[in-house]
Class GN sortase (Thalassotalea psychrophila), 251 residues
Amino acid sequence: MSNIKFIPVTDLSKLKSIASDQTLFEAKKTENQVEKDQKNLLKLLKTIFVIIALACIVSASYIHIKAYFAQYLLSQAWQQSSADNVEKPWPWFDSHPVAKINFPTLGNEQIVLAGDSGQALAFGPGLSHLSVQPGEEGTLVISGHRDTHFSLLQYLNPTEEVILESISGEQHSYKIHKISVVDIDEVDILQTEYERLLLVTCFPFDSDAANTPLRYIIEALPVEDMPQSTLIAKQGARLMKKYRQNISLTF
C-alpha cells in the first residue's frame, strides 16, 4: 500500500488577510513615493524660481553696477590725464574723460566723457561733440541717462550751483536759472553766442518707457555773468530767435 501524505490546509481567511495587508503595503509605498516625488518637484520649482528671481535682480542691477563701477575707473583715468595726455579708463574704450562735473548741494561729482553716444552714456555723462568747451562762448550740452548718472537732476533747484572742471584743471561755476521739460521732436536746442551749460536727460524719471521724446533740461549760466532773472527771460528770448544753429541729441 502506498503512503498517503496529508497536506495541511491553510485557513483561507488568513490568506485573504495577508493579501489585503500586502495590498495596503504596496498602496502605502506608492503613496509615499508620490509624496516624495511631489516634494522633490516642489524643491525643484522653488530652486528654479529663486534662480529666475536672482537673474532678474542681477539684470536690473547690472546697468547700475556697470555705471558706477565705470565711474571709479574713469576717476583713475582722470587723475592721470592732462591737457597734453588723455588717458582712457580701459584700452578698448572709444571715449575718454574731458571734464568733471560737481553738484555741491548734492555732494556728488562725476567724470564727463567725450561724446554722447550710447556706449559713452552707459558709463557716464557725455559732452556733445557739437558743444563748445568749458569757458568758451556758446552752449555746452552734457547728457546722461535718467536711471543712472543723471537721475540726480530731479533733485536740483534753481539758483543752485554746478561746477565744471576742465581737463586742464580750470574750474567754471554755473548757477541754475531755468528748469524745463520739452518735446525734443518739436523744440530745438539752439547754439548761443553767450556761455551757458545745459544738462539734459530723458523724462519722466520714473518711467520704464524707452525712446521717450521728452527731455528734462537744466540751464545754468556762469556765476560771474549771472544777470537778474527778469533780464534773463528777455535776453534768452531775443537770442533764441536770432541764433538758429541746432545742437542734435543722439540718445
